[in-house]
Amino acid sequence: MSRLHVDHADLVRFAEDKVNLPRDKAQEYRAQARRLREKLEGYLAEHPDFTLKKMMLSGSLAKGTALRSLNDIDVACYISGASAPSDIAALLEYLAERLRKAFPNFSPDQVQPQTYSVTASFRGSGLDVDVVPILYDSDPQWYGNLVSQEDGSFLKTSIPLHLEFAGKRKTAQPTHFAQIVRLAKYWTRIMKRERDGFRFKSFMVEMVLAHLADGGADFSDYPEALQHFFTYIARSDFRERIVFSDYYAPRTVGSFTEPVQIIDPVNAENNVCRLYTAQQADMIVEAALDAGDALDAALAAPTKQETVYYWQKIFGSSFQV
Ligand SMILES: Nc1ncnc2c1ncn2[C@@H]1O[C@H](COP(=O)(O)OP(=O)(O)OP(=O)(O)O)[C@@H](O)[C@H]1O
Ligand SMILES: [Mg+2]
Question: Are 167 and 307 in the same domain?
């Protein structure tokens, strides 16, 4: 492979400059989420029967895989009790009303139900916090029914176990696992912008990469790790079932009929990709084929200009060296 014009070190620099959420921002946003969580804890201490039991940072900010383009802070809120409505619109109203109670310093209009979550807007500084409800029945591992942000259905899952799952892969390949997740997510952002109808959820990207890492892929060389990711998707036609053995025996996974099957590592009955159609899978495969070709071409290109041209097919025009 010719690495003359763009090499691993250039991708490291690109990631730091354009892809990753800067560390100080990540710390600031985590602190913002922590203040909300602690405020709820304070309220609960005085009102032990209150039905909002816990707030927990979830998503990429919790996992250290957030992109610079992060535009809200994902927080899961555990709701217990028989009085919580199961109708989504009613549940979001219920959650909003209770959040207003626990956070009296927010004016009512700063806490607003959205389609599948409740937004808490901060005046002035900080990002909005996107509060996603989880119906919860005192499970010690914090399993509960998470409201899907795709279609509002209830998904049985455990956020802390997801964080632990990601944590294991990060420990196995410090720096590199999270960095390849961020670079691959950045690629999906470019594809979403450029290809009509393209979708590829971050959680799926992370699961594909966890699968490759578990299979022995070494992510310490970024051009190679990215090529591995694109090649896997193209070769498998994105139709290979991905299953993990961290929290259940893979043989206990039942049969699914959906074209794309990545089974939630913490719930054998939850196919994370159940809403993806064959056509959407094909678009992902096609984009991965194109990216793999561009990457090969970049590594073989004789001039710097051509090399950058091919990398821009993957990462867009903000890719510069
Ligand atoms: N289909 C699903 N089944 C179970 N849990 C899910 C599912 N989709 C999302 N989650 C949970 O929500 C979290 C956030 O998922 P999402 O796809 O938004 O990824 P993210 O890491 O937050 O990336 P982004 O930076 O793009 O928001 C996941 O880490 C997981 O805990
Ligand atoms: Mg998120």
Answer: yes
Taking residues 126-155, report their average pLDDT.
97
pLDDT band at 3 (very low <50, low <70, confident <90, very high): confident
Q: Is the CB of 261 under 6 A from ligand 1?
A: no
Of 148, 203, 263, 269, the residue with max ligand 1 atoms within 8 A of its CB, to mutate for a pocket test, comes to 203
- CA contacts within 13 A on the Cβ side of 173: 22
Q: CA-CA distances (angstroms) from residue 137 to 79, 141, 172, 232?
A: 8, 11, 33, 39
> For ligand 1, is residue 52 a contact (CB within 6 Å)?
no
Return d(Cα 131, Cα 40) in angstroms, integer. Answer: 13
The span from the CA of 141 to the CA of 165, in Å, is: 13
Task: Enter the tokens of residue 93.
Answer: 């109203």
> For 259-284, what is the mean pLDDT?
98
Q: How many domains does the chain have?
A: 2
Share of the chain above pLDDT 70, in %: 99
CA–centroid distance, 74 to ligand 2, in Å, is 6
End-of-domain residue from the set 119, 136, 158: 158
Q: In the 8-state DSSP scheme, what is residue 137?
A: -
**SS3 state of residue 221:** coil
Q: Is the CB of residue 233 less than 8 Å from the CB of residue 224? A: no
Q: Which atom of ligand 1 is nearest to the CA of 63?
A: 21
d(CA 14, CA 8): 10
Report d(CA 78, CA 152) in Å as an integer.
Answer: 16
Any domain includes 271: yes
Neighbouring CB atoms inside 10 A of 253's CB total: 16
pLDDT tens digits for range 185-228? 999 999 999 999 999 999 999 999 999 999 999 999 999 999 99
Do 268 and 297 share a structural domain? yes
